[in-house]
Amino acid sequence: MIKPRVKICCISSIKEAKMAINNGASALGLVGHMPSGPGVIDDDLIRKIAAGVPPPVSTFLLTSETSAEAIIRHHQKVNTNTLQLVDTPEEGSYEEIRKALPGIKIVQVIHITGKDSIDEALAISAKVDALLLDSGNPTLKVKILGGTGEKHDWEISHQIVKRAPVPVFLAGGLNPSNVREAIEIVGPFGLDICNGVRTQGKLSESKLEAFFQALEG
After folding, report:
1. DSSP string, 104-124
2. For residue range 120-147, what is the model confidence (pLDDT) as tens digits?
3. In this structure, are residues 198 and 187 in contact, taking their beta carbons and an 8 Å threshold?
4. Do the Cβ atoms of 151 and 173 come closer than 8 Å?
5. Three-state secondary structure call for residue 70
6. Is there a contact between 48 and 14 (Cβ–Cβ < 8 Å)?
7. Helix-, strand-, coil-residue percentages of the chain, each rounded to 5
8. Both ends of the chain: CA-CA distance in Å?
9. How far, in Å, CA of 98 to CA of 75, rounded?
């Protein structure tokens, strides 16, 4: 079994960024304005954290913008090396983003709400660099676009991992006690965790250590 890469999301400070990296994180998630959910920080802080992250650690801007113009503008404020689109962008946005931001990776979030999510993921996969499967619900009046701390149907995620031509991250309800099961069922390229390594909203050194120890088996 190949050990997945780990993205620690909802990073709220330079201190948390260093803690995540020191424990083995391959990527950090920096959350911009959202209609709901945890971890939101202002763009100035996102820029400062991203600027201090050493290669080869990736920095993901989580943006809820859906127009190419707004997504590009958001990224230009913070200069991360990866864009994580938590909502479905407008038609033609991927092409515009790539033209305006060459070299910036695009990761599209797919919220697993049922088997229809398989077709959605596969249709989008040809346009992006990676997929991230989460447990939100973008159809609600107040959209839930991540950070739920809840699992979704991992069998559906496994079908996407098997068939998608790009790397797939798994998010939603992961913690030290279930991460091995998640890897065995889904087989993802990467894992994305926020609430499962936090205590009262703060990144926990002991929970981080437990999570990475669980990965080792």
Report:
1. -EEEEEEE--STHHHHHHHHH
2. 999 999 999 999 999 766 666 566 556 5
3. no
4. yes
5. helix
6. yes
7. 35, 20, 40
8. 10
9. 12
27: region left, alpha or beta (phi > 0 left; psi from -120 to 50 alpha): beta
Give the pLDDT score at 123: 97
Model confidence over 146-183: pLDDT tens digits? 656 678 899 999 999 999 999 999 999 999 999 999 99
Residue with the two structure tokens 């946005």: 93
CA distances (Å), 55 to each of 20, 89, 166, 169, in order? Answer: 14, 28, 22, 20
CA distance 138 to 128: 19
Domains of the chain, by residue range, sit at 5-216
* pLDDT beneath 70, residues of the chain: 1, 136-149
Structure tokens at 203: 């990144």
Question: Which one, of 35, 28, 27, 53, lies nearest residue 140 by Cα?
Answer: 35
**Assigned CATH for 5-216:** 3.20.20.70
